[in-house]
């Protein structure tokens, strides 16, 4: 087995990425404070052709050298918009026809592996602050909650790890089931 060279991977150029069809999926960052986490979410969003990232509250916006360390240029390819509050982002997404889901441990949340996507629907996932998670006021505005099953002693995952798991699952289901 031989590792592939970057030139052999047939990746999109930045211009091709901007023109490519995106998944009907947006990410909302609710007061995420770590520039490295924000950068990692940009990079993961690029990998899965996510439509846009909503950066809310204290969440930093590009350009920023610390964010670039993990984004590696994805902050230049993935679309984003800043909102003063996460509630404003959720209101806009609802107005645009998105089903908005908090990724949070809630009463009645649906485990990610059991969550069924509906064809033709657009989705947004809200990822919360590294310490406090998704604000309760934001959870109250969402159409539902999804949760990543966990089996160990810890009760949470890093927000960038959570983004990777959730975005992969949504991308897989959207591509496999609906051909996006």
Please give the CATH architecture.
Answer: 3-Layer(aba) Sandwich
Instruction: State the shape.
Output: globular
CATH superfamily: SPOUT methyltransferase, trefoil knot domain
Low-confidence stretches: none
**Cα distance, first to last residue?**
31 Å
Strand content of the residues, in percent? 15-25%
Question: What is the C-level CATH assignment?
Answer: Alpha Beta
Largest sheet: 7 strands, parallel
Q: Strand pairing plus helix content: what structural class?
A: alpha/beta
How is the largest sheet built, in terms of strand order? 3-2-1-6-4-7-5
Q: What share of residues is helical?
A: 25-40%
Averaged pLDDT: 96
Number of helices: 7
User: What count of structural domains?
Assistant: 1
What string gives the helices and strands in order? HEHEHHEHEEEHEH
Radius of gyration: 16 Å
Tally of strands: 7
CATH topology: Alpha/beta knot
Protein name: RNA methyltransferase
Domain tRNA/rRNA methyltransferase SpoU type: 25-168
Pfam families: SpoU_methylase (PF00588)
Keywords: Methyltransferase, Transferase
What does this structure look like?
The protein is α/β, with parallel strands linked by helices and 180 residues long. The chain has one domain (21-178): Alpha/beta knot (3-Layer(aba) Sandwich). It has seven helices and seven strands; from the N terminus they run αβαβααβαβββαβα. It has helices at residues 14-19, 35-47, 65-71, 74-77, 86-95, 136-141, 159-178; strands at residues 23-30, 50-56, 79-83, 98-103, 110-111, 122-127, 144-147. It has a seven-stranded parallel sheet with strand order 3-2-1-6-4-7-5, sandwiched between helices. Strand 1, helix 2 (35-47) and strand 2 form a beta-alpha-beta unit. The longest helix is centred in the C-terminal third of the chain and has 20 residues, at 159-178. It starts with 13 loop residues before the first helix and ends with a helix. The model has no long low-confidence stretch (mean pLDDT 96). One of its GO terms (molecular function) is methyltransferase activity. Residues 25-168 form the tRNA/rRNA methyltransferase SpoU type domain.
């Amino acid at each position: 087995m031989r590792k592939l060279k970057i030139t052999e991977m047939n990746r999109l150029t930045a211009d091709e990425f901007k023109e490519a069809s995106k998944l009907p999926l947006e990410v909302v960052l609710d007061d995420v404070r770590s520039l490295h986490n924000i950068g990692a979410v940009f990079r993961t969003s690029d990998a899965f052709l996510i439509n846009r990232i909503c950066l809310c509250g204290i969440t930093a916006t590009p350009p920023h050298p610390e964010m670039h360390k993990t984004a590696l240029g994805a902050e230049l390819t993935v679309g984003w918009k800043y909102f003063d509050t996460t509630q404003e982002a959720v209101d806009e997404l609802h107005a645009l026809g998105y089903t908005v889901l908090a990724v949070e441990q809630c009463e009645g949340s649906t485990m990610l592996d059991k969550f069924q996507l509906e064809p033709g629907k657009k989705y947004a996932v809200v990822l919360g602050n590294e310490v406090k998670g998704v604000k309760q006021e934001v959870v109250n505005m969402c159409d539902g909650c999804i949760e990543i099953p966990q089996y160990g002693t810890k009760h949470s995952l890093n927000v960038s790890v959570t983004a990777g798991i959730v975005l992969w699952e949504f991308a897989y289901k959207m591509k496999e089931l609906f051909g996006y």
